[in-house]
Amino acid sequence: MTSSSSILLDERIFRVMQPFVTSFDSLSNIDPDNLIYIPLRGGGSKASLYRFDIGQNSYVLRLLPQQASNLTRMHQIILAKQVGKIHIGPEIHFVDSQMEGMIMNFIPGRTVQQKDFKDCDNLSQFAKFLRKLHRSKESFPIACSPFQRFRNFLLKGKQEKITYPSRFAELKTLMEELEATLQLSPVLQVPTHLDLHPLNIMLTDQQFFLVDWVNGGICDPYFDLTTFATFQCLDESQTLTFLTHYFERSPTQFEWNRFIITQPIRMFVIAAALLNTSIDETRPISYEEALESWKLPSLTDFGKNVMNEPLWPFGLTMLKAGFQLTDQRNFKVALEYIQRHLFSS
């Protein structure tokens, strides 16, 4: 028996695939209903992904979220096309006229793991790869900054009467301070991904690729640098190696301290996003008790895509990881250095 949801999904696949196969080769008479579609696990976005083969070539059909506005879909499509051009992401072959989905190359690789970057060559190569994105001259749309995304999540949470951990009051003030500090110490805004957790970084025999282009666009490059380093749990020596290859020189004291104060920001945004899913407040324990005594999931679990419902424990993991960074002395010293530098210049 076929459910109504699967019928709807099949219709969406057909609406994208039919014009694609027609444009692919009008003489081949490929029937999209006869192709085999293999579901793929995404990096956390609400898009649906399917692999299919035509001849010797493999492709991915990405169905964009139905609830996404046309503006949001257009943003993602433009991003995907531009990064495909510069070989940072998979090449886009087709977008249907209603912007329901797009078809791209299948990347025959795997998502990265922490052990990959114990290898200094891989760390160096990824730093150069990321620099290539950040120095691209292609035209990219403006990204929604992590700070604005954080405010959007809080507004949505207020509207839906979501309960947050008590430290969120402190967090809101801290995020406002960090935003003001970074605005007073601007850097060149460049093409960014803005979600560089391990599930969005593919490694093949030849190179890296970035997938799941949802949040990216023109923004502060430090958000990419710090998100990558935090999720890969790079120690200070590895971070210095990574930044040295990225800048093609040793980072200055200002660059190093700016990196440190940017590190927790993405963790806090993800925390707000995941806690926003916890509308059902039937928890066996309070947020405060969970933060103190529960064995919460790890950043590694997030990178292995082992996230299960409910999502609030992962939200607490991100919140705790962010505060672990801001509670460290080097963060406080770095923030003081940047602020003193700004007021003295």
**What would you say the CATH architecture of the largest domain is?**
Alpha-Beta Complex
Largest sheet report: 5 strands, antiparallel
Shape: globular
Tell me the number of helical segments per DSSP (H or I, 4 or more residues long): 12
Rounded to the nearest angstrom, the radius of gyration is 21 Å
**Would you identify the regions where 5 or more consecutive residues have pLDDT less than 50?**
1-5
CATH superfamily of the largest domain: Aminoglycoside phosphotransferase (APH), C-terminal lobe
Spatially, the strands of the biggest sheet line up as 1-2-3-5-4
Describe what you observe in this structure.
A five-stranded antiparallel sheet has the order 1-2-3-5-4, sandwiched between helices. Strands 6-8-9 form a three-stranded antiparallel sheet, with helices on one face. It folds into two domains: 103 residues, Phosphorylase Kinase, domain 1 (2-Layer Sandwich); 234 residues, Alpha-Beta Complex (Aminoglycoside 3'-phosphotransferase, Chain: A, domain 2), CATH 3.90.1200. The radius of gyration is 21 Å and the shape is globular. It is built from twelve helices and ten strands.
